[in-house]
Description:
Blueprint: E1 5-6, E2 31-38, E3 42-50, H1 62-65, E4 68-70, E5 73-77, E6 83-86, H2 88-101, H3 109-122, E7 134-143, E8 155-165, E9 176-181, H4 198-202, H5 205-213, E10 218-221, E11 237-242, E12 245-248, H6 259-270, E13 274-277, H7 282-290, E14 294-301, E15 305-314, E16 317-320, H8 328-341, E17 352-354
Parallel strand pairs: 1-3, 9-10, 9-15, 12-13
Antiparallel strand pairs: 2-3, 2-8, 4-7, 5-6, 5-7, 6-17, 7-8, 11-12, 11-14, 14-15, 15-16
Bound molecules: pyridoxal-5'-phosphate.
Amino acid sequence: xxxxxxxxxxxxxxxxxxxxxxxxxxxxxxxxxxxxxxxxxxxxxxxxxxxxxxxxxxxxxxxxxxxxxxxxxxxxxxxxxxxxxxxxxxxxxxxxxxxxxxxxxxxxxxxxxxxxxxxxxxxxxxxxxxxxxxxxxxxxxxxxxxxxxxxxxxxxxxxxxxxxxxxxxxxxxxxxxxxxxxxxxxxxxxxxxxxxxxxxxxxxxxxxxxxxxxxxxxxxxxxxxxxxxxxxxxxxxxxxxxxxxxxxxxxxxxxxxxxxxxxxxxxxxxxxxxxxxxxxxxxxxxxxxxxxxxxxxxxxxxxxxxxxxxxxxxxxxxxxxxxxxxxxxxxxxxxxxxxxxxxxxxxxxxxxxxxx
Length: 356
Ligand SMILES: *Cc1c(COP(=O)(O)O)cnc(C)c1O
């Protein structure tokens, strides 16, 4: 494994006294991990350096052609003052899957995890202490060759930045209002919907803005061809409790293979619940709603863990779910997963990785 060069900051900063002011993704720890790639050298010069602007030519390819990928995960401080990561190997594995789709060279997953642990050890004081807070971790790759030919870049930068983040739900787990998009689409099979890449977010903004203007907080995407089958929320995967079955759309090539989603499915299976990864149409959801079988709807993702859906709007129909309150299964899954992540519930799955 390559040695990581370390250059510490001359201007150390600190977390605010009042951690409730942190918000999400607004401030950053003192250091970042950086590594470069060229065709001749492969990935080289891994280093931990002060968090600072990076200098790039205006011709740098990532500004023009969107050849970028990213990941998102969290580190949690436990009551025993340990620091835990949640399934970080899965994030680096998925980064390589996204990279493959976007012609970005593969990373050594084990080395990435070692680099991340080292970075967190150096910036340990930025992992907040209060309940519900965490250190959000953003690994990403950008194409850095300074030229305008529309090819795959021959140079890249891999960077990990970290951001101390406050309680995601400052007012508790309140259900969100979601709007089913029947005009625009996010991804099609064979496209890059299965990759974590900036373009999937850019393509979502217009619907997101429309949703906000109509007092909805997010958009639920339907499949890109027939606009019949449910895909995901765009930064979250989606689950429906219909009767005694928990259903989430199957991994089909156009949705992201979420690690929270995967963990929920594994948890539910272990508890002997009926859980299906299958195709589900918006019509089936409407029918279940009409029959009184639609018990709960919730989104899953690293940032919120679980986001209960209280209102789902499709065309002219507004469906209020579980009286606009968090459901029993959603609450149970939230408590269990966050309990494991924070080292409060025994981790029978071997999901957590100790930084120290
Ligand atoms: C990151 C992301 C998710 C959630 O994945 P997790 O691994 O659970 O955080 C879902 N959908 C999209 C499009 C995403 O980018």
